[in-house]
């Protein structure tokens, strides 16, 4: 029997995926593959179906038709909590941090959520000290160590956005979904976020939603374009930019 290497199987394969709510068709016949180590952008105007697609990939909602495979495994009908256990991480357009506790405790909670690093701290009243090493490494790498004892609510918005990605990365997901990571960021924070995403993609496959087409085209290895729930283009930045349908809809050519 020929053994298939893990790298030969797409991290994510979506086949003929559709979602409707009664008479409202949100997604229609979406096909998509994302390979290991790929930095893949999902773009489209408001209402194109981007967040719905992310919600299906994470198991938050179920498709009306079609299939989602993760690492070659059919996951379409699994409950949502199973997706995280398999190695799918996600951030949201609006930060979902624990705002009243410190940066360090946010990251500790993130690790305590995993079976491999969990300690029954609600019973013991303490966190596992073995979880500190990876936390220190990530905070130091991204210049956040000095903020470790600061409550999240006291951090600038741009730093909160970076922290949310660090919280997802510390769980070492195989696939990380980022929902508009640049949303609300000023120029300086955008540069830091771009660096964080690019360097993180060396170890984690990243699929991200981006409203700004210029940012997506500059950052991504490959791009998928949605319009009114349908995939109208997919390929490299150059291929997407030269696509006549994309030019007509988004650039008015």
Question: What features would you highlight for this structure?
Answer:
253 residues, alpha/beta, six-stranded mixed beta sheet, four-stranded antiparallel beta sheet, 10 helices
Description:
A six-stranded mixed sheet has the order 6-7-8-3-9-10, with helices on both faces. Strands 2-1-4-5 form a four-stranded antiparallel sheet, covered by helices on one side. With 253 residues, the protein is of the alpha/beta class. The longest helix has 14 residues, at 187-200. Helix 7 (187-200) links the parallel strand 7 and strand 8. The protein has ten helices and ten strands. 34% of the residues lie in helices and 24% in strands. It folds into two domains: 1-87 and 174-253, P-loop containing nucleotide triphosphate hydrolases (Rossmann fold, 3-Layer(aba) Sandwich); 97-172, no CATH class. It has helices at residues 50-57, 80-86, 103-112, 121-124, 132-141, 157-169, 187-200, 213-219, 237-242, 244-251; strands spanning 12-21, 24-34, 39-43, 65-70, 73-74, 88-91, 175-179, 205-209, 222-227, 230-235. It is globular.
Residue fraction in strands: 15-25%
The CATH homologous superfamily name of the largest domain equals P-loop containing nucleotide triphosphate hydrolases
- The name of the CATH architecture of the largest domain is 3-Layer(aba) Sandwich
| Fraction of residues in H or I helices | 25-40%
Structural class: alpha/beta
Radius of gyration: 19 Å
Globular, elongated, flat, extended or rod-shaped: what is the shape? globular
Which consecutive residue ranges, at least 5 long each, have pLDDT under 50? 121-125
Order of helices and strands: EEEHEEHEHHHHEHEHEEHH
């Amino acid at each position: 029997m020929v053994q298939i290497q893990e790298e030969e199987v797409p991290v994510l394969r979506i086949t003929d995926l559709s979602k409707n709510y009664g008479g409202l068709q949100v997604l229609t016949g979406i096909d998509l593959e994302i390979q290991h180590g790929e930095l893949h952008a999902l773009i489209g105007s408001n209402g194109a179906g981007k967040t719905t697609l992310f919600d299906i990939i994470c198991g938050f909602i179920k498709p009306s038709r079609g299939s989602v495979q993760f690492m070659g495994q059919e996951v379409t009908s699994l409950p949502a909590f199973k997706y995280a256990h398999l190695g799918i991480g996600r951030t949201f357009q609006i930060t979902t941090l624990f705002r009243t506790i410190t940066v360090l405790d946010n990251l500790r909670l993130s690790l305590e959520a995993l079976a491999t690093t969990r300690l029954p701290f609600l019973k013991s009243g303490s966190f596992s000290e073995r979880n500190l090493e990876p936390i220190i490494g990530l905070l130091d790498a991204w210049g956040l160590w000095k903020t470790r004892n600061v409550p999240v609510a006291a951090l600038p918005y741009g730093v909160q956005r970076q922290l949310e990605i660090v919280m997802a990365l510390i769980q070492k997901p195989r696939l990380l979904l980022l929902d508009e990571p640049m949303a609300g960021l000023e120029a300086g924070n955008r540069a830091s976020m771009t660096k964080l995403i690019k360097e993180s993609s060396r170890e984690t496959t990243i699929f991200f939603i981006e409203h700004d087409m210029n940012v997506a085209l500059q950052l991504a290895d490959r791009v998928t374009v949605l319009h009114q729930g349908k995939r109208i283009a997919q390929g490299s930045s150059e291929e997407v930019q030269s696509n006549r349908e994309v030019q007509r809809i988004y650039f008015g050519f």
